[in-house]
Each structure stands twice: as structure tokens, then as C-alpha cells.
Amino acid sequence: MSRLKIGFVGTGGMGQMAHLSNYTQLHELCEVVALAEVRPQLARSVADRYGISKIYDHHMELINHAKVDAIVAPQLYRSHLAIIPDILKAGIPVFTEKPLTLTVEAGEQLVRLAEEHQTLHMVGYHKRSDPAMEYASERIEQWKTSGEYGRLQYIRVTMPPGDWIGGADAPLSSNEPYPFIPIEPGSAEFTDEQNRQLDTFVNYYIHQVNAIRYLLKESYKITYADRRGILLTGESDSGVTVALEMAPYQTSIEWHESMLVCFEKGFVRVDLPPPLARQQAGKVTIMKDNGTDSPSYELPVMPNRSAMRQQAMNFIAAVRGERPAPCESKEALEDLKVARDYIRLMQQYQ
């Protein structure tokens, strides 16, 4: 099968470190043939480093002239409404960073456009693509089907702030000013302060909100949020208790993000590396104690492949129709509904 021709819309820090540096290594799967970047000096530096032949200063020029099979658009999420609709209307499969947007209303617009134009919009919840998360998800589904370790009872995600860069090399940069790009406004439902809280929550914790649903394979609703913004709890459609610990402590040079999935007679735990760590997968620990066999622990060995690299491979596969995208915009919209419910719940303390 021929390589996909990929265009990049935006080549800032995250665009380079998390995405471009991975796609340009997948030589057998794709070729990055064009980029659109509003800062011309940065565009030229990035194109020279990564061997990209075509440079455009506006995303519409890339859409109209580059003849790409798919677009990777690592933009700030509050800029999505200014750029992504044009890509969807052109019928070009697109990848964006998380979250989908800031508000539910804006997210609904993008979901509607993707459906109207029958165009893939994959949202970058890279933790779903970590080999450790994929492995854990398969094992969880096996246990749910077999019932050997009892019912799924509890999922806890812990996300202390820490060194999320994990030693990644600094991206190319320039001193050029950022041109004006329209920014999505906050929700009309909330005050300015509540919209700031919403912005903070989706920026820092929407990955974990999404990961809970990925591990559950069903929706859930928030039932409690503490006044200090450290803990939220909820319940899934089938009655599984879930908890998200937000910044119970912090680290300076480590990363302690973890997912604990508890059955009655065992658990599956995932410890994730810093998001930008180069070619490191998470670690899986499996505890089994079904009362029949001897209690045991498993520590399966994961491949030396980062979630970001696997995510790029998953997007390419989804564009080709080889397998579904890990998270499309329609499901990503559910994360914004959880975030909205969280801010509503926090109103009781104001």
C-alpha cells in the first residue's frame, strides 16, 4: 500500500515534539509533504529540519493546493473552531489535540460537521494508544467476559502534577509574534470565573476523564466533587465506582500518573511515563487472587514505543480504514459534558 501524504497545520512546540517528530519517522507508512504555519521563519526552520517540501502560511492554502490524504492539526483547543471546520468541509481526515473544544456547544458543532461530511476527526487522547493501556484494556475485557476474577468494581485514576516533558529535546522556535486567531469564548452558562475553572480542568484533566471511559467501555456520571478540587467521584452506567484524584501531591522531576482497575479478586494497574518521554511505554501490573490458584503478580514487558508514536500509527490506520480511531470527535464530546457537570457541581461551594 502506498504511503499516506500528510499535511501539518501548525508546527509549534507540541506540534513538533509530540507529532511531527513521530510522523516523520514512520517512513513506510506516511510522508509529511506540506505544512501550514503562520510564522514564516519558524515554518522554514521546521521544513528544513524535517525535509518538508511545501510551506503555506494559511491552512486554506494547504487544503486547496497540497493534495494530502490527511491533516494533523496540533492547535490550541480554543482555536479549533477557527480552523477545523474548513478541514472537515473539505472532506480531509483530520487529527487534533485534546480536548475537542472548550465547551459542549462548540464541540457539538465539530461533531455535526464531521457527520455531515462523513469525515474522520480523531482527537488526540494519546494515553489510549500507549501499549500498556492497550494491553490493560484487553485484559480487563477478558476478565469481564470470563468472570474468573469477579465483577469490575472500581477504577481510580491519579494524576499528580510533575515533569510531563520527561527529558524531551526542546523544539525549534522563533521570536515572531503570534498573529491574531479567534479564540472560542467560554460557556454562556458560566461566569467568567467558572469559565476559567472549566478551562483549567479541561486543560489539565481531560485526558484522565477520557481514560476512565476507555477503561470502562461505557459512560459514567460525576456524583461528588470536593471543594478543594482534588477529588471527584462518579458511577458508570453499570454501577462501577470511579474516582479521579487531581493533584493530591506534586513531584518536581518525576511523573506519577496511574490507573487502577479493581475486580473482586484482582486488579490491573497501569503506570504511565511522562507524556513527551521518547519511546517509553507504560508499565502494567496484574494481581490475581481468585481463591483457587496461588495468588500471583504479572509484569508483562511492553514494546519500546511511546503513546505518541503509536497514536500516529493508529491515525494512519484509521485513515486507511484498517481499524477504528481510538477516539473520534463524537466520543470526545462526552468528555466535555463530564467537564461541564464538574463545574456545575462545584457551584455548590461558591
Which tags fit this structure?
about 350 residues; alpha/beta; Rossmann fold; Dihydrodipicolinate Reductase, domain 2; six-stranded parallel beta sheet; about 20% strand; globular; Gfo/Idh/MocA-like oxidoreductase N-terminal domain-containing protein; Gfo/Idh/MocA-like_OxRdtase_N
**Series of H and E elements:** EHEHEHEHEHEHEHEEEEEEEHH
Please indicate the percent range of residues in DSSP E strands (runs of 2 or more). Answer: 15-25%
| Tally of individual helices | 9
Number of domains: 2
Kindly name the structural category: alpha/beta
Total number of β-strand segments? 14
State the shape: globular
Sheet having the most strands:
8 strands, mixed
Strand order of the largest sheet: 8-9-10-7-11-12-13-14
Write down the Rg.
Answer: 21 Å
**Unreliable parts:** none
**CATH topology-level name of the largest domain:** Dihydrodipicolinate Reductase, domain 2
CATH homologous superfamily caption of the largest domain: Dihydrodipicolinate Reductase, domain 2
CATH architecture of the largest domain: 2-Layer Sandwich
The assembly state of the depicted protein chains is single chain
Mean pLDDT: 97
User: What is the CATH C level class of the largest domain, in words?
Assistant: Alpha Beta
N-to-C terminal Cα separation, in Å? 58 Å
The proportion of residues forming helix, as a percent range, comes to 25-40%
Protein name: Gfo/Idh/MocA-like oxidoreductase N-terminal domain-containing protein
InterPro entries: Gfo/Idh/MocA-like_OxRdtase_N, Gfo/Idh/MocA_oxidrdct_glycsds, NAD(P)-bd_dom_sf
Organism: Cohnella abietis
Pfam families: GFO_IDH_MocA
